[in-house]
């Protein structure tokens, strides 16, 4: 069963029958190509109502439905992203039913978003919109995502990692700022030594630490894994005096857990104190991955430690060490007959053409 289009004067109308009920309406369009999707959406909504007794939800209603279903199972960060999208960033799309989210309307909403946000934020906005629409497709609400909008090309920026030469001074600056409060001091060491996410540091528990085997097994992770991680000696030495039989490693004095972002201010203060780049909780995890890579750990092993599903995700965490490249270039030159030796950074490279000719 489908619908038919016909003209009344210069305007296209549609007609269909669903559940024994005959429907005939005007599309308000004089152009048949614009009239067709209007009729198609009306027919789909009528069929959905006849089948399930419900209409296609608006985007605002879909956000509310997603939050109702996923709040108990999705991560707090994931829920917050969708909640913020629905509260602040619906623009003119909120009242439209899902099948009315045309490419033109989505692109115009994105332009409005770009008026107050960076392009990378606009890509995140589009990602959340696709997440919601794909969820509607899986539930059978609409047959396909109704718009086709590509993400913007964004200039990538260098990402900060904590230089190894500054690490001890940086940790000392964090300790000096926090005094006798162990929460942030312990959290930054868990993130630096084990590559934990901040949320995983917040929920870290003593019973997951095996001092004899020198391992720690995160029991509440983003991907629901429970893989043991080797604990380096310096971190084990730090944790052992505080070790308890069970309970959370990080707790406020009133017994409550720390909120997301609780390490940020101490990290920013430490950055300024020692002249470090912009280190945050996420970049501390990136520092952990980069230092492992520079120490010769294969990417596949780093992927396992970071608990990434895809090696591409791991690769995005690894920053290039140009000094490694310099030494590699020198070894390469030597192997092809130029006889070059590793040069200090910024030093001129000697012309060894004569040596190559000998």
Write a short abstract of this structure.
This protein folds into 4 domains: 3-52, no CATH class; 59-138; 164-315, hpI Integrase, Chain A, CATH 1.10.443; 327-357, no CATH class. 48% of the residues lie in helices and 8% in strands.
Description of the molecule:
With 358 residues, the protein is mainly alpha-helical. The protein is 48% helix and 8% strand. The chain has four domains: 3-52, no CATH class; 59-138; 164-315, hpI Integrase, Chain A (Orthogonal Bundle); 327-357, no CATH class. It contains 15 helices and six strands. The longest helix is centred in the N-terminal third of the chain and has 21 residues, at 32-52. The chain has helices at 32-52, 59-70, 76-88, 103-114, 119-138, 167-178, 182-194, 198-202, 233-239, 264-274, 281-294, 299-306, 311-315, 322-335, 353-357; strands at 3-8, 11-18, 21-29, 209-210, 215-216, 229-230. The protein has a three-stranded antiparallel β-sheet, covered by helices on one side. A hairpin with a 2-residue loop joins strand 2 (11-18) and strand 3 (21-29).
């Amino acid at each position: 069963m489908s619908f038919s289009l016909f003209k009344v004067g210069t305007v296209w109308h549609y007609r269909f029958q669903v559940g024994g009920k005959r429907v005939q309406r005007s599309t308000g369009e004089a152009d048949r190509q614009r009239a067709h999707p209007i009729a198609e959406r009306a027919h789909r909504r009528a069929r959905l109502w006849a089948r399930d007794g419900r209409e296609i939800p608006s985007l605002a209603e879909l956000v509310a439905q997603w939050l109702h279903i996923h709040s108990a199972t999705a991560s707090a960060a994931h829920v917050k992203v969708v909640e913020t999208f629905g509260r602040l960033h619906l623009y003119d799309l909120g009242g439209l039913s899902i099948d009315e989210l045309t490419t033109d309307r989505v692109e115009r909403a994105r332009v409005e978003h770009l008026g107050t946000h960076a392009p990378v934020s606009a890509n995140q906005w589009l990602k959340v919109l696709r997440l919601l629409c794909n969820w509607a497709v899986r539930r059978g609400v609409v047959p396909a995502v109704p718009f086709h909008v590509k993400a913007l090309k964004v200039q990538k920026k260098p990402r900060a990692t904590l230089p190894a030469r500054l690490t001890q001074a940086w940790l000392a600056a964090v300790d000096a700022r926090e005094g006798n409060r162990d929460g942030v001091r312990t959290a930054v060491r868990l993130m630096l030594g084990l590559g934990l996410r901040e949320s995983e540091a917040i929920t870290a528990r003593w019973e997951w630490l095996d001092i004899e085997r020198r391992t720690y097994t995160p029991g509440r992770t983003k991907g629901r894994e429970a893989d043991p991680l080797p604990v380096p000696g310096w971190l084990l030495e730090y944790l052992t005096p505080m070790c308890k039989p069970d309970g959370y490693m990080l707790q406020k004095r009133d017994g409550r857990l720390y909120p997301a972002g609780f390490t940020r201010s101490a990290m920013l203060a430490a950055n300024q104190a020692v002249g470090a780049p912009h280190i945050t909780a996420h970049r501390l995890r990136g520092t952990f991955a980069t230092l492992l890579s520079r120490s010769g750990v294969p990417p596949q092993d780093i992927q396992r430690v970071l608990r990434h599903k895809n090696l591409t995700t791991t690769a995005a965490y690894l920053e290039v060490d140009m000094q490694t490249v310099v030494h590699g270039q020198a070894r390469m030159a030597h192997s092809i007959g130029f006889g070059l030796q590793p040069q200090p950074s910024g030093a001129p490279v000697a012309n060894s053409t004569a040596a190559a000719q000998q």
